[in-house]
Amino acid sequence: MKNYLKKIENKLSDHLKLEELIIVDNTHLHVKHKSFVPGKLHLHLKIKSQYLGSISKISAQRLIMKVLKDDLKTSIHALEISINKQV
């Protein structure tokens, strides 16, 4: 699991200008939900980025989703994104 989260971190860092990235795995909080799919992750990305904070929320989220496009099809069920431009 840690290797996969590191892969996500590297992907985002390689494609976007980030000052800080924290990936929180909240999968365990969703185990009893009706739509829970074993093997798919529920992640919360906590990002500090002056660049992403300077563009619209929708544009920033689209950029992140584009980078993680393949992962969203295969390994990520839910993605929460928090962006702060303050460093």
Structure description:
This protein is α+β, with helices and mostly antiparallel strands and 87 residues long. The chain has a single domain (2-84), classed as BolA-like (GMP Synthetase, Chain A, domain 3). The protein is built from four helices and three strands; from the N terminus they run αββαααβ. The protein has a three-stranded mixed sheet with strand order 1-2-3. The protein is globular, with a radius of gyration of 13 Å. The termini are far apart.
Quick structural gist:
The protein is of the alpha+beta class.
Quickly list its features:
41% helix, 87 residues, single chain, 3 strands, GMP Synthetase, Chain A, domain 3, three-stranded mixed β-sheet, alpha+beta
Principal-axis shape equals globular
DSSP strand content: 25-35%
Cα gyration radius (Å): 13 Å
Q: What structural class is derived from the secondary structure elements?
A: alpha+beta
The end-to-end distance, rounded to whole angstroms, is 28 Å
Main beta sheet, described? 3 strands, mixed
Total separate domains: 1
Q: What is the CATH homologous superfamily assignment?
A: BolA-like
User: What is the top-level CATH class?
Assistant: Alpha Beta
Number of β-strand runs: 3
Treating each run of at least 4 consecutive H or I residues as one helix, how many helices? 4
CATH T-level fold name: GMP Synthetase, Chain A, domain 3
Q: What order do the SSEs take from the amino end to the carboxyl end, as H and E?
A: HEEHHHE
